[in-house]
Amino acid sequence: MAGLRHRDEAAFVTMVTSYHQTLLRIARLHVSSMAVAEEVVQETWLAVMTGIDRFDGRSSVKTWCVRILVNQAVSRGRREGRIVPFSALAAADGSPAGPPSVPADRFHDVEHPVSPYLWSAPPRDWPEERLLGAEVRRLVAETVAGLPVAQRAVISLRDIEGWSASETCDALEISDANQRVLLHRARAAVRTALDGYLAEVQR
């Protein structure tokens, strides 16, 4: 931070190298094309440099950069007339309403004589060699890309970027409860896609 505040070029290059791809992936969640996402990220870096003296250290530099990015992306999206605030998407997508993450028929009912409420069709074992294959990685990427935007943002930060729950909540300005629901639903969707794929290849 001292280097950034003194406009040290090496410090800025280090920050861009560390966070540029993450910011680009997050920007792409909010805008209409990769070209627009690139512009939003460039605007974000400009805002970071012009606003560095106002950074108060209450969050990490990474979280601060992502907040600036989201604000830039929302502003651009409003100009395009195609965006609602992320917090609104998260609140709607993270509500308790909606279908269960796992179909109810995967579990025994309360009257089952041996294992009420437990799995009737448990998740299948996933062979490691299959999970590491290019086809599975492509399936996971396509599944994540097809998720609702709030779920996609949370699973991307938590499971792809490796962010903590608190970092994700701070950056996206959502509650911890919302974050947990969104992550659970996103992971369930990926698990279901993998289950279907492995059922096919093991026939």
Question: How would you describe what is shown here?
Answer:
- The chain has 203 residues and is mainly α.
- The chain has 2 domains: 82 residues, RNA polymerase sigma factor, region 2, helix turn helix motif (Rna Polymerase Sigma Factor, Chain: A, Orthogonal Bundle), CATH 1.10.1740.10; 115 residues, Orthogonal Bundle (Arc Repressor Mutant, subunit A), CATH 1.10.10.
- It has 10 helices and no strands.
- Helix 2 runs antiparallel to helix 8.
- The longest helix is centred in the C-terminal third of the chain and has 26 residues.
- The radius of gyration is 20 Å and the shape is elongated.
Q: Low-confidence spans: pLDDT under 50, at least 5 residues?
A: none
Whole-number radius of gyration?
A: 20 Å
In the CATH scheme, what's the topology name of the largest domain?
Arc Repressor Mutant, subunit A
The fourth-level CATH homologous superfamily of the largest domain is Winged helix-like DNA-binding domain superfamily/Winged helix DNA-binding domain
* Percent of residues in helices: 55-70%
Please tell me the CATH architecture of the largest domain by its name.
Orthogonal Bundle
- The dominant shape is elongated
Mean pLDDT: 79
The count of DSSP E runs of length 2 or more, i.e. the number of strands, is 0
Biggest sheet details: none
Secondary-structure element sequence?
Answer: HHHHHHHHHH
Classify the secondary structure makeup into a structural class: mainly alpha
CATH class of the largest domain: Mainly Alpha
* End-to-end CA span: 56 Å
| Overall number of structural domains | 2
Strand content: under 5%
Q: What is the count of DSSP helices, taking H or I runs of 4+ residues? A: 10
